[in-house]
Amino acid sequence: MSANQSLIQAHIRRLAIVGVGLIGGSLARALREAGVVEWIIGVGRQADNLMAAQRLGVIDEWTQDITKAVAGADMVVLATPVGAMAAVLQSMLPALSKTTIITDAGSVKGEVVNMARSILGSGSSMFVPAHPIAGTENTGVEASFAALYRQRYVILTPQPDTSEAAIATVEGMWAATGAHLLRMNIVEHDKILAATSHLPHVLAYALVDYMAGLEEADTCFELAAGGFFDFTRIASSHPVMWRDICLQNRRAILLRLDQYMSQLQQLRTYIDAQDGSAIEAIFVHAKKVRDTHLAAYHDSSTCDE
Amino acid sequence: MSANQSLIQAHIRRLAIVGVGLIGGSLARALREAGVVEWIIGVGRQADNLMAAQRLGVIDEWTQDITKAVAGADMVVLATPVGAMAAVLQSMLPALSKTTIITDAGSVKGEVVNMARSILGSGSSMFVPAHPIAGTENTGVEASFAALYRQRYVILTPQPDTSEAAIATVEGMWAATGAHLLRMNIVEHDKILAATSHLPHVLAYALVDYMAGLEEADTCFELAAGGFFDFTRIASSHPVMWRDICLQNRRAILLRLDQYMSQLQQLRTYIDAQDGSAIEAIFVHAKKVRDTHLAAYHDSSTCDE
Q1: Whole-model pTM?
Q2: For FRET with A146, which of A229, A272, B6, B172 sits at 20 to 30 Å CA-CA?
Q3: B286 in the same domain as B233
Q4: Which of A246, A290, A299, A304 best probes binding to B when mutated, by most B CB atoms within 10 angstroms?
């Protein structure tokens, strides 16, 4: 991964955001606050959410006709679940200008890039794959806030034929939100995010589902404390978004899940064998590593994900 | 489980707390704040921690001689890791009066009760096994605070021969901290806590340890966001305390771990088979269950665990 320090100042005349939820809405708010965008048009499937977005001043205008949204836009941001992006791209094709930059905010990059290439053809040089490493478990435009990306990483995974000018504009846009920019290789991105983000989500969803299935489920949840609720916070995330991530980053997630389960199996062996020093060594090491990295995370971050 | 509503007002003349850390220190602070204790003597292995406890006004006096601490005490609270309790009980025997009530704050009850019975013999009727369901990942007396137990559950697992008067006094003590009291069967307690608390701790420690072992560990931790740090918050907990819990509640933890891993294996199968609707069903269900119980948890709780 490499950081890009020489960012151009963003100026976006007309921005179309597809999916004005937590991610798209927070981007809109941050760009507005930075004064780098003139007009934002929102598009999405839920009219009530779009109306709320306009009422909250997050967007200037909304439509459910995607061709209307992208016509004349200098930038289109795909902020839908990754599984919806192919249909969205396909339906905007008729209205898409060759100078319009398209970018996304998906947590998976490999499948998204393949999909964009197959739909946009040579026009895919104007597609800049991006992933802001930020979010909360809350959904919808009401949950969006301008500071979401401040001091957080946004990873770009451009291809050899991606337009350098388009990359620079997307970087400028994200820089205006207060984010730090990085460029990464697609495979590396998808493997790392599978470990740091996708795997924990799978584990948390599975734990809540497991507990809910127990005979003693009611007592379990009644007696669960803050530790449990923090551990499973991410299991309150957008189910469709995470279903899509599991499908689109399937191989990397399966790899991480298998690696993790074999680590867990090892720890299980130590517990079964009553090997106190082996158990303690793992716990001491984990605590030390986490405490160290958490301190660094807090030092560089001002807002909660 | 059953709630006990008819609590007597606690009054403790001389309280000995063995282990003046987060748990013991918070109990001392809460009892002092409630004005139900006259004198608190702290005992433990780390003199600097005991000095800090006295300086902070958490305890009145400290000693490293456990017989001195328990002599003349009407209540002794064991707030050490569960693995240390046998040695602690053994060493206080010579100074223990027949009227002194002993209670503990351990997260495992089966092994603790067996241990108390074998060391105290017929005197074990004065041992009231208890478990406050509260804590944070922070350790030491500096991390203690009076509100830790407010609106949280304290579970008692008394035996048929446990003195009813001793039980009532221990319940009165915990009620004075603002906690809700419950009585539970030992086996039920250990199985439920294995699911709601011990399993998540094992999973979190294992995840941090797994990530730390990856070739890309540095990049992983650099790019980890709030979701990851919340998920692994409990991996910053006291390693020796959790080692002891794993050893002492081994069977229930192994049961929960095996059940959870087979649930995870099921979810893995769905991801591998690209079965979007099966994945989505699990995620939707988990989110719904968690959101429901979290709302109830917040309604009934004023302080963070």
Answers
A1: 0.91
A2: A229
A3: yes
A4: A290
